[in-house]
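Fold sample X.
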Amino acid sequence: MSANVIQARAFVGGISSDVTGTTQFSSTLNTGWHHVAFVRTGNLLKLFIDGVQEGGNVAITGTVNDSANQFAIGQLGELVNLNWNGWIDEFRLSVGIARWTANFIPAGTAYNISQACRGFFYARKTDGSIAVFAGTATKLYQLNNINFTWTDVSKSLSSYGTLPNTDHWQFAQFGSFVIAVQANTVPQVFNLAAPSAFADLGGSPPQARYVSVVGRFVVLSGLIGHLSACNGRG
């Protein structure tokens, strides 16, 4: 920090390139959480505060130092007397990609899912692109392939019945549909051709622990409250 503003610095050899922000922060000024991004794009350094560039473009030439010193967050390397005065959350270091090169709207969700991942699946769309899904104990998410944040695509954005501790979400792709099941929830379906959110799978299927595709049939097994071993639909 310098004069209560954010300053970002990169070293090439013994030469530093600094970008100094203009927004002031203190215990009473601009309090609360803020999104800060320090980006190298080509031979330029950029600093963004809450998605708005501050300090202009700063030239940098050469490869940034590859230090053998300890990597630290919240202090300057191994210098324990130079600490960040505040809190840090959702820290991310990206190498080889300039995630932001112009003003942007910071994501309103965490970069990573806040709960433990309890199931993961990727589906291939008709255009060859990939859709990635993950489940937690009570939610389903889709990965944004541009900024790599997760979007809540649970039915009506609400929570599902809590996944049993010993289980995971199970997924299968049937044509342009992704089907997700777990024991405490009605089978869910996501339409890759018209993506929005998961919804209840039609036809009143039973709740199930497992799903698979066999030929032209979707097969549910580990059924809840049914004596049959599996239930299929073409």
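Fold sample Y, listed below.
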Amino acid sequence: MAYAHIPDQLKKKLDSKGEICIFIGYSEESKAYMLYIPSTKKFFVSRDVQLIEEEAWDGSIEKTMNVKNCMSHDEDDEEMAEIHPQTASPTQGQQVTPLRRNESAYSSTLQGGISSASSSTCTPNERGKKFINLSDIYDEGMNSLFALYCHVDDPIHFEDAIKDRKWIEAMNEEINAIERNKTWDLVELPKGKEVIEVKWVYKTKSNAEGKIERHKARLVVKGYKQQYGRNYEETFTPVARMETVRAVLSIAAQNKWKVYQMDVKSAFLNGVLIEEVYIEQPLGYEKKGQEHKVGRLKKALYGLKQTPRAWYSRIDSYLLEKGFEKCEGEPTLYIKEKIVKY
């Protein structure tokens, strides 16, 4: 028996940090252990393993499989990868190329697999260019291990996104949120002031099952062009620690309290700026007849160095105004006591 460490990118905030499994040998392609999870019937390879030599597994693997190493060889940090058993086998001469760690479908592949009609056998240099159907490589009557690769092509450039209706709608939604929030005013650029460029960032959002939930377009400021003392000052903002979250949930569970969770949509857009920051108009949404003007930010945008601090200042003042008290040792925890008479 052994415990394998689960990398942060493969687990949620409150998930366990380790997985109980069975040590079955050593990898032939890297300095790592080969392991098997009886509960999920999955094999994987990991270097971060703690063996429990005094314990042994009394069960047996139902089917003997040729366990292949599916480790990522991206840099020298080979942590963990799974191989999903499928009743399929490559034809003679075909090989299943390991998924690289930085592939967009890496985490969703490991968490429950992907239902797809195609698989990629591309090398890192051919990523996203070569796809073949599973029907072309099926060999009935043989058991093998397969890693399905599902690549979602999120556009990088505005010129590509403008050709797809779903990304146009996503950009319209972002612009509408910015306009409702009165994020900037169009003004002439004052002399001696610099304008900061902005860009569109596109991301396909998936749910826990790996299904596409929505398409998100975010307008981001190129904050790396900011200069300290000119268009930003302080940037530090406190962030809730996981120990605090666990403590609150533990107290709520012991007292059988109800716990509510909420999400502020486009939260950073609510932060009020005190600095003088000018940005260019977003590509594709320039005001007709005012294309030469720039936006003077009244509220924060994603990408600015001071955006997290501006948002924290806004929510902090709001909660204090509503009668909450900030904990001395945890600036992200607010408490409000209310006496209820029955």
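Sample Y note: The chain is about 15% helix and 20% strand.
Also: The radius of gyration is 26 Å.
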